[in-house]
Amino acid sequence: MVENLQRYGIIKSSKVAETMEKIDRGLFVPNGVQPYIDSPMSIGYNATISAPHMHATCLQLLENYLQPGMHALDVGSGTGYLTACFAMMVGPNGRAVGVEHIPELVSFSINNIEKSAAAPQLKDGSLSVHEGDGRQGWPEFATYDAIHVGAAAPEIPQPLIDQLKTGGRMIIPVGNVFQDLKVVDKNSDGSISIRTETSVRYVPLTSKEAQLKE
Q1: Contact 90, 15 (CB under 8 A)
Q2: Is 166 helix (H, G, I), strand (E, B) or coil?
Q3: Could you tell me which of 150, 169, 174, 177 has the fewest CB atoms within 10 Å of its CB?
Q4: Containing structural domain, residue 136
Q5: How far is CA 89 from CA 71, 92, 136, 157, in A?
Q6: What CATH number has the domain bearing residue 96?
């Protein structure tokens, strides 16, 4: 899987390749699902795990903001896969935080991470997954060098902008039917620069009630 993503030029850095090799996607998908094909998969509760090429794209865009010792927030952390990748990149002196509003997925993700190469960081507390409304971020460990949002918002939630460190970067899909993956950089004067990376299709970033009703 990683070799294919390198061949197609999606993974350009050895650090991203190494991280995706260490964190086995097979531990993070429901039983009976082919984990290594390049497509998103349902994980129940009207949620999905993104396709490997989207995970690779996000890790690549955030690589400089996932250096050892940095803080990273994963909103809508789902299976815990990307949160575990963040933990591997920021290391035990950094902090990787997942926020997920479906309690069953919080439990599922913690079980998955416990089986993975990121388990020691779950144990030492530098990696944690919390039940909560990700649109509010997770103020306890703010500010964050890197924020990844795994569901599409109609607009960028202000609490996430507030919790982004000066000099930090957020990756978030924005839009309703048609969505763009936005790269949001917070400049040294506190202003925000936003550019569009690519067109995407994500599930909506919404309340738990609305998500379960769909």
Answers
A1: no
A2: strand
A3: 177
A4: 60-212
A5: 10, 9, 24, 25
A6: 3.40.50.150
Residue 115 Cα to chain centre, angstroms: 19
Q: Is 10 a domain residue?
A: no
DSSP character string of 4-28:
HHHHTTS---HHHHHHHHHS-GGGS
Report whether 153 contacts 173 (CB < 8 A): yes
Q: Which of 8-17, 90-99, 114-123, 135-144 is predicted least confidently?
A: 8-17
Model confidence, pTM: 0.95
End-to-end CA distance of the chain: 32
Give catalytic residue positions. Answer: 50
DSSP conformation letters of 107-146: HHHHHHHHTSTTHHHHHHTSEEEEES-GGG--GGG--EEE
- Residue 214 scores a pLDDT above 70: no
CA distance 64 to 189: 20
Measured CA distances, 62 to 114, 118, 123, 147, 165 (Å) = 24, 18, 25, 8, 13
Note whether 134 and 76 are within 8 A (CB).
yes
- Inter-CA distances, 166 with 58, 85, 101, 138, 149, Å: 19, 23, 27, 17, 18
Is 165 domain-assigned? yes
Please count the structural domains in the chain.
1
